[in-house]
Amino acid sequence: MERDYALWLLQKIKKDYNLIAKEYSRTRKFIFDVEGLLKFVKDGDKILDLGCGNGRLLWVLKKKKIDYIGADVSENLIKIAKENFPNEKFQLIEPLKLPFSENFFDKVFCIRTFHHIPSKEFRVLFLKEIFRVLKPGGFLILSCWYLWSFKNKKIFLAMLKSTILKILGKSKLDFGDAFLPWQNKILRYYHFFTQRGLKKLVEKTGFKVKKIWKSPFDIFLIAQK
Fold first, then answer.
1. Which of the 8 DSSP states describes residue 174?
2. What is the pLDDT of residues 66-99, one digit of tens each?
3. In sequence order, what E strands does 51-131 have?
4. Is 157 inside a domain boundary?
């Protein structure tokens, strides 16, 4: 993928989530997919919730005594997160240059966000930024949609269309990329990860992958700096 197009996609993602923020937040009140991640957190941890959205991860993490910062590219989602959790810290960020010091966090959570980062180059840069802000021995807890498992005709057709256009030289996307509709309002960019491909990419940036597994909807990965 050309760098200029990847940069355009990053801005599109930001605009898309600003546009749908209220409706999207109303669909993100569940915690069943992240409840099991609390076991990776201990009292006193400094935690970055990267791609925090409406802050829903806090409904799980607040069971521990932690120092939390939620970060997102969408101004409107950050506003909603602050309304949901007025006593917590939330911050607007750019994903490829995080505004935090080196070796600052004990844990970085990145839940259902990484599949929106366009191009292999930018995914590597994003992971390197996470690596930089983690303390030595700190952990990345990451999940992304396992879209290959979805028995959804629209998802299958979107990927098929994207692949055919790429083969014909008529798409700027990479193989494994597609646009998927959200409530017929926008087309969101996704990269369709495999478990093997995700593990290989994370290890390339210096992390040691400790655990990786699939649920019906997600790939989960735990990696240590």
1. P
2. 999 999 999 999 999 999 999 999 999 999 999 9
3. 67-72, 89-92, 105-111
4. no
Per the CB < 8 A criterion, the answer to whether 53 and 13 are in contact is: no
Please check whether residue 177 lies inside any domain of the structure: no
In three state form, how does the secondary structure of 117-156 look?
Answer: CCCHHHHHHHHHHHHHHEEEEEEEEEEEECHHHCCCHHHH
Into how many domains does the chain fold?
A: 1
Can you give the pTM of this predicted structure? Answer: 0.94
Strand partners, 212: 221
Query: Is residue 124 a part of any domain in this protein?
Result: yes
**CATH number for the domain harbouring residue 206:** 3.40.50.150
Confirm whether 165 is domain-assigned. no
Pick the closest to residue 187 from 169, 198, 173, 204 (CA basis).
173
73 contacts 94 by C-beta, under 8 angstroms: yes
Q: Which domain holds residue 28?
A: 3-147+194-224
